[in-house]
Amino acid sequence: MTDIIKKHKLSEAEAVALVELLFFAYRDFVSDPDEILEGLSFGRAHHRILHFVGRDPGMTVASLLDILKITKQSLARVLKELIDKGYVFQKEGEVDRRQRLLFLTDTGEALRQKLMAPQIARFQKAALETGGVGLRDLLLHLINPEHRKAAAEWSLRVGEVK
Question: 67: how many CB neighbours lie within 10 A of its CB?
Fold first, then answer.
């Protein structure tokens, strides 16, 4: 197949081909973490919470809701399970005691690292094999325009090695 990503205007057939490749890529990208999560009776929502709280320790529940774009009820159920099982803990805000600040426990961080390891390896291999040209921009442009700036800023803010 020709490199259809380098073109500025995609035909419908080329766009459909990319959609299909994205489906396949996503299937494989989440397969390793899914297997680990299944052994813990966790799902992808647990994974996303562990990831974002681990990347931004002390984030508020409101910030997490904004990132995940899920209901409070959905978050509350999964978050409670992660707290009850010792993967996440929360503290009240120092300035505003109504705020709940989220942190991973050592067990939660270890699980986050274990879930992320095969995904990091997959991206590193893909970047090496393709030269890594434009991967970040490509992913950013798959995000809805109204969310793109916030996602890019968040990624840069937490992207510093901690």
Answer: 19
